[in-house]
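Board notes, transcribed. Complex of a protein with zinc ion.
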Amino acid sequence: MSYTGPEFDPPQQRRSRRAPLTVGLAALVPGALLGWAVYEAVGGPGGSGSGQANAATPRSASLTPTDDAKVPTPSAVPSGLSLKGKVVVIDPGHNPGNFQHPSEINQKVNIGTNWKECDTTGTSTNAGYSEARFTLDVAHRLRVLLEKQGATVKLTHDGDQPAWGPCVNRRAEIGNAAHADAAISIHADGAPEGDRGFHVILPASVHSGAADTRPILASSRTLGERVESDFAKVTGSAPSNYVGNGTGLDVRKDLGGLNLSTVPKVFIECGNMRDSKDAALLTSGSWRQKAAQGISEGIVSFLRG
Ligand code: ZN
């Protein structure tokens, strides 16, 4: 309806850094709330508007790290709460370069149950903000938040190397090879106008070919439930009104990234890029920061048990 596009995001007032307050909060605010408190204390993404402004730039210029949130450097996490030693693999869905590599991404890979395209271009808002750029930006924000908690974070790609993909089987392999304690693939959906909200996708029980999700079913469900709950709480978004019967959870057996995972893994569809109201959220840098915060809190909750 009143979609205004990313470049019209109201600028955030940059407040002065208040390091002493931040340190004080570190001592007072337990657990997963810490990251959000620090973010709030220093004025959110810093008003640089970097993520928003880039949405209007040519694709060739869109792969710079400026999509990253200007999230402050970490404050100390109380040692008992640190995620030191925990590994999280973040999989930014698709790749901004996929549009230029149709033959590569259309090659078929085996996902256990069947053969499927290596990767897809993903969707975009009606104004052209691509899902691939959205997923990378949220991944960058999420990485900062998780590293702040002490976790080791690995991305399956960073939009440049490789210039396309990686293929969905490779995305799963990266999480497996890292022995990730949690893995998450970030997406946004491309459903009709009026379809709104987010949902988390859990692996179905699959035992076929190279796919055997049975050992990760329970842990992935727990991870997904934590992410669903915290994403709703932090963003204020409602669970999908078109998938999952209002639970915010879906179960699928057709996703290679889940079928081939040997570590706890979920997907999240953060909203519907083709719905004008959801698009207004997805194109907002401050909303993407909340999305990353919600995902982070869910993962942190899962990792702390
Ligand atoms: Zn996607």
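The pocket of zinc ion is lined by residues 93-94, 122, 131, 187 (CB under 6 Å). The chain has ten helices and ten strands.
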